[in-house]
Design a protein that fits this description.
mainly alpha; DNA-binding; 184 residues; 9 helices; homodimer
Chain lengths: 184, 184
DNA sequence: GTCTATATGGAGATAGAC
DNA sequence: GTCTATCTCCATATAGAC
């Protein structure tokens, strides 16, 4: 039976879940050792830059996933299909609000990490892709530019709310409201 | 000239700003000593429960502020006036998104603190007060129940977004969109 | 690559004089 | 109440054998 984590690439998604669950500071190396099953030395062998490099790898992995599964489809696919696809992918990715957005969490986390650029890139990219999709869908430039950030904000806020109240119902309701915002 | 922080009550708002800026883990006691100007011993004299008690005091202070300035007016004042009041108070309280919501940040922070109950209370209280206001304003029960959490989510998400992109424009735009959600 | 052992720093919290 | 000094623990990270 193969090991769960046998190389650097295998570790990244596991690291992502750990950072999501415990936060950047809360994810101590000792905890990471436990949850990944990797030894301390293997961890530093794979990530010589330590915890910062681990988090950076996670952010890159998340960014790639969104680029491939959300952003690109929004810009190249049929607009209506791509939007519906976004909502369903987002719902399952964030487990209807039970799983937080690590980028959003890092954004609120302020000063403790050097990832401001990555965080900004993720959100501006998402908004830009969404805005283009709404434009291609027939919204005016004004309305598309207004709706895109509001949809992203609604999703992020719904994660906060679902987390705070332990009620995933808020999440699906917010996605429905977001879909309304994107209509002509 | 009086000291900035001379008693426990004076310390709480300062502590709030520190937790907002650095997060719960990031706000080390050493940092708190520096920023408040209080000595270690005075700090522990005022807050024998240590950092946890400091954060709890901050959350209680925030909760009282919202109760008095937002929640109660929503339930007792003229609905239209109270709503407009909420948006303007929220905008200045969160400094148009440049200041984060400490309760929202703690909600995403997951496992590192024992404040889940307080966090849930804050958001459910906000949503309940808002829902009642919308009802009194003439929305159907269905629509009020749907719009209230969406408005709160939009505000929280706008804070995330403003923080991530360093663009306060997202915040005021989100407040406008939220106001639209609360119309019949 | 992975192990055990450890260096080093800073965290939260406390003691006891004043 | 506030001071200085200090306790203990655990954090990240590294050394060096295998």
């Amino acid at each position: 039976m193969p090991r769960l984590v046998a190389e650097r690439g295998d570790a990244v998604p596991v690291l992502g879940e750990i950072f999501r669950k415990y936060g950047y500071d809360g994810a101590s190396i000792g905890l990471i050792v436990q949850e990944t099953g990797l030894g301390r030395s293997s961890l530093y062998h794979f990530f010589p830059g330590g915890k910062e490099e681990m988090a950076r790898a996670v952010l890159e992995h998340v960014d790639s996933w969104f680029e491939e599964n959300i952003f690109t489809p929004l810009e190249t696919g049929d607009p209506d299909t791509a939007l519906a696809h976004m909502y369903s992918e987002v719902a399952s990715y964030f487990r209807s609000g039970r799983r937080i957005c690590i980028v959003g969490a890092f954004a609120l986390d302020a000063v403790r990490h050097p990832f401001a650029r990555e965080i900004e890139g993720y959100f501006t990219r998402w908004i830009a892709a969404l805005e283009r999709c709404l434009l291609r869908r027939g919204l005016t430039g004004r309305r598309a530019a207004a709706a895109a950030p509001q949809i992203v904000a609604l999703i992020q806020g719904a994660i906060v709310l679902s987390r705070a109240t332990a009620d995933p119902g808020h999440f699906s309701a917010a996605l429905d409201a977001a879909a309304e915002l994107g209509k002509a």
